[in-house]
Amino acid sequence: MSAQNIRDAVIIGGNRIPFARAHTAYATAGNQDMLTSTLNGLVARFGLQGEQIGTVAAGAVMKHSKNFNLTRESVLGTPLDPKTPAFDVQMACATGMEAIGSMANKIKLGQIDSAIAGGVDSISDAPIVVTDELRGILMEANRAKTLSQRLKALSKIRPAHLAPQAPGVNEPRTGMSMGEHMAITAHAWGITRAEQDELALASHKNLAAAYDRGFFDDLITPFKNVSRDTNMRADSTLEKLGKLSPAFGKDLGAEATMTAANSTALTDGASAVLLGSEEWADQHDLPKLANFIDYEEGAVDFVDGAEGLLMAPAYAAARMLKRNNLSFSDFEYLEIHEAFASTVLAQIKAWESEEFCKNKLGLDSALGTIDRSRLNVNGSSLAAGHPFAATGGRIVASLAKALHGKPGKLGFISVCAAGGQGITAIIEGR
Amino acid sequence: MARDTYTEFANTGFGRTLTKNLGLPQPAKLRRHRPGRPLIDGPVVVLGSSEAASALADRLLSWDLDVRRHLGPKEKVAGVVACFDSASSPADLSETVLEIGMLLKQLKPSGRVITVSRDPQGTSDPSVRAARSAVQGLTRSTAHEMRAGGTANGIVLADELDPSAPGVAGALRFLLSGRSAFVSGQFISVDSVNGALPQNWDRPLQGQVAVVTGAARGIGASIARVLHRDGASLILVDIPAAGEQLAAVANEVSGTALQLDITAENAGERILGHARQHHGRLDIVVHNAGITRDKLLANMDESRWNSVIAVNIESQLRMNRAFLASDLFNSDARGAMGPRIISLASTSGIAGNRGQTNYAASKAGVMGMVSATADQLAARHGTINAVAPGFIETEMTAKIPFATREVARRLNSLNQGGLPVDVAETISFLASPQAGGTSGLTLRVCGQNLVGA
């Protein structure tokens, strides 16, 4: 297809429910409840009742097997036209970004005129898996043709088989948690405790200030009587953050720097973004906040320790910036998701490092520096929380709103993900 | 909403007999509007021989009603329209008044008595003004005597106004219909020939865009439902913290939810911006959002006083300035019906209420604002009015202690509390094209409540 046939994919707006710390306000709400409520809020915000949307793409990282059709089932719980198709996406913490990016591409190609993309995650309602032994016995009993065969199978169950297998966020290939992986990377890059705490504090302050000036009034719809992210600590200080003991990398002893406060807490929540072609937005009298310009996926070989688990966005960004002939100084705002404060700091250091950029990214020089006054200006994952699949939708909607009214100004997005993956993206205000 | 178990009981066979024998109040099940149902269930008698009497009889006939000038002794009647517009002395009233008296016993449940008279302020002749004022006294007293859900109200015509004006027809139809179920002992003044009759009486707001503040629950949500039923497209506003319920109401009525604190400096501009984006027009504003922070004046603190004034009246003044400065809120310029503003007042603002100095001040302020803003709206053929609810069954009144609530419910001519839909119906009427002749008015929806509530 020739370039002339590519049209703009417009970000019209978004909606999310406030993010809540795991096992608190949303403990009894499942993924489908949260995603449905988020979609309902989006429908109400833009008057989409009865509307047939091109495609709805969303997903969850922690998903029950019964939720195999999570997004479609959620759509059926809204006033959207039931003829709206939907599918599930999963790319760990980058799920939401992948859903948004791929839907934007469909719009650009003219395959669809409108889309909703987002994600949801609940740690509180995580699926619990039974042991392989118990599952084998149950499946055998299920296959049994007679009662005696069934009883014989079931008689094999032993107490040890009944122990539930807690869902883990550990990397299956290394057995290490994300935090332990990041502790190694942070240490290797010499990220200090002080700069992590400063980044965490800025996240809380920026988020609280954004709430106070009403920035989230048209981005968030309350859920279960929660109207603000519950992880946010507006009164946080460097002093308070400094008192916490390290949570990850304890084997580093005195050199451990990652605490519960400069790491993002496990969180429940959901988000959705409404996308459309220009024509579709105009026909429906909907706002056009920003264009979705481009996105890039990346992955690193972290298994043998050749690269840090969460460093994939460093590589994706380099390719994406080169393709679009841009540098960091071209961006009005930069949104870098913090799985941990040290993730952001390690990425920034990597981009500033001539050695890394030459050796790893294959560039002639360092990629550039990041103007901190443009980084995560309306708060970020450390304060808002990070319900894995919901983070992309939070970032895209907030950044599009921040860029609205600044035609041509660019926004940069970076989201790291489990499995050594990541996504970066560019959007442009209008 | 608390259940009115007494009214439920009094409407059973045994309950009816018992309450009658004991001389207890007998609250009736009120006739309420349902789209597609007949306007009124039975003959309507038009009394009087004035200009208005023949104009209104013609109007009623055009609605296919069974219109009579006299009624046989055994027949039942659903409504009585008594025209006193030509009375020039109190002695002129007697013939028609006595005819009303004879018809009262033949009136069906939820029957209607509507008097039509001229504005007393329109004349300086003592005898004429006496006659016109007398009609208001007799109407209010008749309302107190009505039984079985019946109401009595008046239409007051400006001096010289042609009784065939659309505003007169609009008021007449509203008062005859189930839309006015909880309006009694009130007067709707019609001051101008402005307004137009709708093409479809069941969808008078077709094509209009309305914003309703405080729409997430209670009376606000009811207003949204009724305006939607009557054909309006809706923008629903409430504070961000009420966003979940607001979204549910918006999805129910196919409107858009705008989370907004109306006390924000730019609230009016935000609403205008939303209306411009999504509809390209704004025709109707319903200022429903309000709060109570009750306390005896002796214990009143600054924040209770200031917050009630800020939400209930200052915000409306500020938003109205923005609306009136905007071309968007000038549907007259597009050749349509003029813009409409309807504010929620309260009977507390009329009679006062112990422990509500702040609330009553704000609601009396609303009435003052409405009467003073009428001229500005008139310039664009628009109207502004207030609705003053009495005791309405809501989540708020359900919190009143049982005994107080029971007394408050029975302290009106209909012996029961009104429903949110009753307030909403009156607001929808004032928002409609057929109410274009009425402006600057505060209309009570209180079942002729004796005091403020």
UniProtKB/TrEMBL annotation, chain A:
| Family the UniProt entry places it in | Belongs to the thiolase-like superfamily. Thiolase family.
Q: What class of enzyme is it?
A: transferase
Give the protein name, as stated in the record.
Acetyl-CoA C-acetyltransferase
InterPro entries in the record, alphabetically?
3-ketoacyl-CoA_Thiolase, Thiolase, Thiolase-like, Thiolase_C, Thiolase_N
Which molecular function GO terms apply here? Answer: acetyl-CoA C-acetyltransferase activity
* Active-site residue list: C93 (acyl-thioester intermediate), H386 (proton acceptor), C416 (proton acceptor)
Domain spans labelled Thiolase C-terminal: 289-428
Residues annotated as coiled-coil are none
Entry keywords, A to Z: Acyltransferase, Transferase
In its keyword annotation, does this UniProt entry include Transmembrane helix? no
Q: What NCBIfam families does this protein map onto?
A: AcCoA-C-Actrans, PRK09268.1
Give the CC-aspect GO terms: cytosol
- EC number(s) from the headed UniProt entry: 2.3.1.9
UniProtKB/TrEMBL annotation, chain B:
Is Oxidoreductase one of the keywords? yes
The segment(s) forming the Ketoreductase domain are 208-395
* Molecular function per GO: 3-oxoacyl-[acyl-carrier-protein] reductase (NADPH) activity
Q: Which domain of life is it from?
A: Bacteria
Pfam families in alphabetical order? adh_short_C2
Q: Which InterPro entries match?
A: KR_dom, NAD(P)-bd_dom_sf, Sc_DH/Rdtase_CS, SDR_fam
Q: What EC designation does it have?
A: 1.1.1.100
Q: Which NCBIfam families match?
A: PRK08261.1 (NF006110)
Q: Which family does it belong to?
A: Belongs to the short-chain dehydrogenases/reductases (SDR) family.
State the name under which the record lists this protein: 3-oxoacyl-[acyl-carrier protein] reductase
What organism is this sequence from?
Nesterenkonia sandarakina
